[in-house]
Amino acid sequence: MKAGAPEPPERPFHLSAEVYDVIYQHLPYTEQADRIAELVRQRSPVARTLLEVGCGTGRYLQELRRHFTVEGLDVEPAMLDIARQRLPDVPLHEGDMRTFDLGRPFDAVMCLFSSIGYMTTREDLVAALGNMRRHLVLGGVMVIDPWFTPDAWIERHIGASLDERGDLVVARLSHGTSDGRISVMDMHHLVGRKGVGVDHYVERHVMGLFTDEEYMDVFAEVGLAAERLDDLAWMDRNRYVAVAV
User: What pLDDT digit, counting tens, does each position of 110-169 carry?
Assistant: First the structure.
């Protein structure tokens, strides 16, 4: 980062939670939720309960509840605050995907939108997927949207978006670098509030780069029979579906 730039907070989305839904308002949540429900029911027609790990502001849960009785979990309190406003009657839990314990299993567990990418080591990945597996009934279904593989990562890529909703205008520029198998994205936000002014802050996202083979090895290690789907989840990334065995 250049001298004089704001230092990123330790927690991604701590500052940007309030504008997250503005930035991602164009995502096909309804279409994706219907596809996820189809994937689950193909493998477990009797599935009724679903846990989303890394639920963020609750937009996927808002759609998935049309198909299942849902609960959510996230590590960021600011995101959960928004989710609770959106879904006041849905149980939402604060916790780390590697260590949370809700004390009961679900018919399906989701970890969408590359949230699993915040696991930066194989040990992290084993802990997270193993913990989610422990929250699945036998024969239950897990859906994972992975982060980039090492081969797909584009070094020093610049991403840009400009979005507006209500009184908020949000411009975001991201710059990605890597250190071995770790990707680092600094996301610069310009947040304009009409009639008020403009704020600038940076959030840093540190995420692990794993190959398809490494994901599949970990799935097998923690007791999941997984397959990589040819249809794409988002931003040209494949999706994994696994069954608890």
Answer: 999 999 999 999 999 999 999 999 999 999 999 999 999 999 999 999 999 999 999 999
**Mean pLDDT, rounded, of the chain:** 93
Closest CA to 215 of 115, 112, 116, 73: 116
pTM (2 d.p.) = 0.93
Q: Walk me through the domains of the chain, giving residue ranges and CATH numbers.
A: 21-149+211-244 (3.40.50.150), 151-208 (2.20.130.10)
